[in-house]
C-alpha cells in the first residue's frame, strides 16, 4: 500500500490496525481493524478513511480532537490474536449450526458436527438451555414446516450479540 488508505478494507492488505491518539488527554488506543469494521458496518457508518479519521473519538475522555493513524502490521498483541481466534471459532460453529438449522426440516442433522458446534458455543453462553433447545428442535423438527431449529438458532445468535460477542453479520 502506497500512501494513505482509501477505505478501512485497504488496511486489511497490510494486516493493519487503527491507532487513535487524543490531543486533549494524550490517551492512545490501538483498535483491532476487524472489530472496527464490524462495528462500523453494524452502525451503518462509512468505511472511507477520511470519514474514519475525522469521526473517531477518544476512548478515555470522549473528545473529538484526535489523531487517527493506520498502523501496518499492527496485529502483534497476543491477547488480540487470542480474542480474534475465539471469535473465528465461535462464528464457524455458528455457521455449522446455521447450515444444520436450515436442513433440519428435511433430514436428520443430529450428527457429530452439530454436537461439536454446540460444545464449542457452550463457553460463550450463560447457560446451556438454548443449546439443549436447539438439539431438541433439531431432533423433533423433521418434517415440520415452521423449522423450530431455525428459531432456536436465532435465539442463540441474539443471546451472543446481547453478551457483546463479535457475531458475523450474516447470522444477525
- Overall outline: elongated
Element order, helices and strands?
HEEHHEHHHH
pLDDT below 50 for ≥5 consecutive residues: which ranges? Answer: none
Q: What about the largest sheet?
A: 3 strands, antiparallel
* Quantity of strands, as a count: 3
The strands making up the biggest β-sheet line up spatially as: 2-1-3
Tell me the quaternary state: single chain
Q: What's the average pLDDT? A: 87
- Specify the number of helices: 7
Distance between the termini: 33 Å
Query: What is the domain tally?
Result: 2
Strand content: 5-15%
Organism: Sphingomonas citri
Protein name: Transposase
Name a few traits of the molecule:
172 residues, 2 domains, 49% helix, mainly alpha, Transposase, three-stranded antiparallel beta sheet
Report what the structure shows.
With 172 residues, the protein is mainly alpha-helical. It has 2 domains: 8-74, no CATH class; 79-166, no CATH class. 49% of the residues lie in helices and 9% in strands. The protein contains 7 helices and 3 strands; from the N terminus they run H-E-E-H-H-E-H-H-H-H. The protein has helices at 8-12, 33-42, 49-55, 78-103, 112-121, 129-140, 148-162, and strands at residues 17-22, 28-31, 66-71. The protein has a 3-stranded antiparallel β-sheet with strand order 2-1-3. Helix 4 (78-103) runs antiparallel to helix 7. It is elongated. The mean pLDDT is 87.
Structure described in brief:
This is Transposase. The protein is mainly alpha-helical and 172 residues long.
Give the helix/strand layout.
Blueprint: H1 8-12, E1 17-22, E2 28-31, H2 33-42, H3 49-55, E3 66-71, H4 78-103, H5 112-121, H6 129-140, H7 148-162
Antiparallel strand pairs: 1-2, 1-3
Amino acid at each position: 500500500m502506497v500512501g494513505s488508505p482509501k477505505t478501512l478494507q485497504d488496511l486489511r492488505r497490510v494486516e493493519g490496525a487503527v491507532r487513535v491518539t487524543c490531543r486533549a488527554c494524550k490517551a492512545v488506543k490501538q483498535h483491532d481493524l476487524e472489530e472496527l469494521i464490524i462495528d462500523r458496518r453494524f452502525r451503518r457508518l462509512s468505511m472511507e478513511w477520511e470519514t474514519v479519521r475525522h469521526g473517531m473519538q477518544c476512548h478515555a475522555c470522549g473528545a473529538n480532537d484526535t489523531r487517527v493513524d493506520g498502523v501496518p502490521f499492527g496485529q502483534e498483541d497476543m491477547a488480540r490474536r487470542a480474542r480474534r481466534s475465539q471469535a473465528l471459532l465461535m462464528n464457524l460453529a455458528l455457521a455449522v449450526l446455521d447450515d444444520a438449522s436450515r436442513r433440519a426440516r428435511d433430514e436428520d442433522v443430529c450428527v457429530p458436527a452439530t454436537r461439536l458446534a454446540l460444545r464449542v458455543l457452550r463457553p460463550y453462553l450463560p447457560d446451556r438451555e438454548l443449546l439443549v433447545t436447539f438439539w431438541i428442535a433439531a431432533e423433533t423438527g423433521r418434517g415440520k414446516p415452521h423449522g423450530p431449529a431455525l428459531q432456536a438458532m436465532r435465539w442463540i445468535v441474539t443471546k451472543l450479540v446481547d453478551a457483546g460477542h463479535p457475531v458475523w453479520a450474516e447470522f444477525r
